[in-house]
Design brief:
Layout (H helix, E strand, L loop, with lengths): L2 H15 L3 E2 L2 H6 L14 E3 L4 H13 L4 E4 L16 E4 L6 E5 L4 E5 L4 H8 L4 E2 L10 H6 L7 H4 L2 H4 E7 L5 E5 L11 H5 L8 E8 L1 E2 L3 E8 L3 H13 L6 E5 L1 H10 L9 E8 L1 H17 L4 E5 L2 H20 L5 E8 L5 H12 L6 E6 L4 E8 L4 H20 L18 H5 L1 H14 L13
Parallel strand pairs: 2-4, 3-4
Antiparallel strand pairs: 1-2, 5-6, 6-10, 7-11, 8-9, 8-10, 12-14, 12-15, 13-14, 13-17, 16-18, 17-18
Helix pairs in contact: 1-3, 9-11, 9-13, 10-12, 13-14
């Protein structure tokens, strides 16, 4: 892109958006990275559209002058999906934060892409409904759709793939299309909704999302179970799932991460591999399910099966789960976190997870395993010295071994973080060259000049 073309494009964008178009260094720096370990890459400018029509107008200008476009939500991603590695305009959708419609009778809602997860659930509170996908961060709904996000509730409620019913999308040339709808099923034509969910802004810019909502559970109960070994904890999860028991959430924390929680809270958790179970439903259903789970955990040598009956304690436990990795990072001042995730078939989870933990035990770099193990997904997070190339090389090797271990077991290189910059190298190993070629053909069809988030997913 020539300087003259960029100047003309920026003049047009400034005329369109006024003060909502910025080339200020501080604003550009803020949009240069996500929460991943990947290096910052600063965009040339940042646009703040407030409607689908403005996003369309921005795209038309950028397309005409061949300016790259990088959609930006909350910046909470973990694989480098927002870095402007080829420059261009970061399109920040945070001002598109309106809940457009709530259809309580049909249990669905339509929102603009910039709506945050927690704000949506606050808006829904009086309807008796909620949106269950919880990736931990207070991410935007558009970003969660673009990365096919998941989280702690996926074992019961599914991921964004199952909970997005329809989309409004702006294509590379500014064309606006709508996919899906409010019907609970359809066999009309290609499933474009599923194509854009998980496309990470490389095929189009998601501006509105229609979501499936769910009734707020009648009752909720949380149990903390600790085990003598990681193997016993994971074995309990596999046995629970293979029995088909309807658990709401089950989170695994390895011993080093439980130790971190112990240093930052007064929850009194034994420093052992630990599972957080959440049960949802009627009191009778919770009693039946939790009783069966207790039998399973006892069979696997559980050291403790402790109820968190008080709502305040339950909240503190989930807060500890959410904050634990931040506390771990603070214990190594100046460190940078390198989070990676994989997902494997449930039967393969014990072998893959245990072998990964043994691999981590060979390094002195602080490392932790935490997982939404109810669907075979776990995260490995390192706290490394960003000034030490040897540590970075060691972590890269350990992360690569984890990914190849998961692929060998029939799993995936990324359960919920997306591909971005971090997992591009594994795409062909996971899907095969013909499938990647088909992805490239789709990219070329939707974005022939490679202006939409260029360099992500497909190098």
């Amino acid at each position: 892109m020539s300087v003259a073309l960029q100047t003309t494009a920026f003049d047009e964008l400034r005329a369109l958006l006024g003060e909502r178009f910025s080339t200020a260094q501080a604003v550009r720096d803020h949009h240069a990275r996500d929460e991943s370990h990947h290096a910052a890459a600063v965009p040339d400018a940042v646009a703040f559209p407030a409607s689908t029509e403005e996003v369309s107008a921005v795209a038309r200008i950028c397309h005409a002058h061949r300016v790259p476009m990088i959609p930006f939500g909350a910046g909470s991603g973990l694989e480098g999906a927002v870095q402007a590695i080829h420059g261009g305009v970061s399109i920040d959708l945070s001002r598109m934060d309106a809940v457009l419609a709530v259809n309580a009778a049909d249990m669905d809602a339509t929102v603009q892409a910039g709506v945050r997860r927690r704000a949506l659930n606050a808006h829904l509170r009086d309807t008796g409904l909620f949106f269950p996908v919880d990736p931990g961060a207070d991410a935007s709904i558009g970003g969660m759709s673009a990365t096919r996000a998941s989280g702690t509730n996926a074992v019961r409620f599914g991921t964004m793939r199952e909970n997005v019913m329809g989309l409004t999308v702006v294509l590379a040339d500014g064309e606006i299309i709508k996919t899906g709808g409010r019907a609970r099923k359809s066999s009309a034509g290609y499933d474009l909704t599923r194509l854009f969910v998980g496309s990470e802004g490389t095929l189009g810019i998601i501006t509105e999302v229609t979501l499936r909502l769910h009734p707020i559970p009648e009752s909720t109960a949380v149990v903390v179970a600790s085990f003598p070994s990681l193997e016993a904890a994971v074995g309990s999860v596999v046995a629970t799932l293979q029995m088909g028991l309807p658990i709401g959430r089950v989170e695994l924390l390895d011993e080093p991460l439980v130790a971190v929680i112990g240093r930052h809270t007064n929850l009194g958790l034994p420093v052992n591999p630990t599972l957080f179970f959440e049960f949802q439903g009627s009191p009778a259903a919770i009693a039946e399910t939790s009783g069966l789970v207790r039998e399973i955990t006892d069979d696997h040598g559980a050291l403790q099966f402790r109820w968190a009956e008080d709502a305040d304690v339950r909240e503190k436990l989930w807060d500890a789960r959410r904050l634990a990795l931040g506390w771990a990072k603070s214990e190594r001042p100046g460190s940078r976190s390198w989070p990676g995730d994989v997902c494997v078939p449930i039967s393969a989870l014990p072998e893959v997870l245990l072998e990964t933990r043994r691999d981590l035990d060979t390094t002195a770099i602080p490392s932790f395993i935490v997982g939404h193990v109810g669907d075979g997904n776990f995260h490995c997070v390192f706290m490394l010295d960003p000034e030490d190339p040897a540590e970075e090389a060691a972590v890269a090797e350990l992360n690569s071994r984890m990914v190849h271990r998961a692929l060998k077991a029939g799993g995936t290189s990324t359960g919920e973080h997306g591909v971005g910059l971090g997992k591009r190298a594994y795409l062909e190993a996971e899907h095969g060259a013909p499938a990647v070629a088909a992805m490239r053909a789709l990219k070329t069809t939707f974005d022939p000049y490679s202006l939409l988030n260029p360099g992500k997913i497909l190098p």
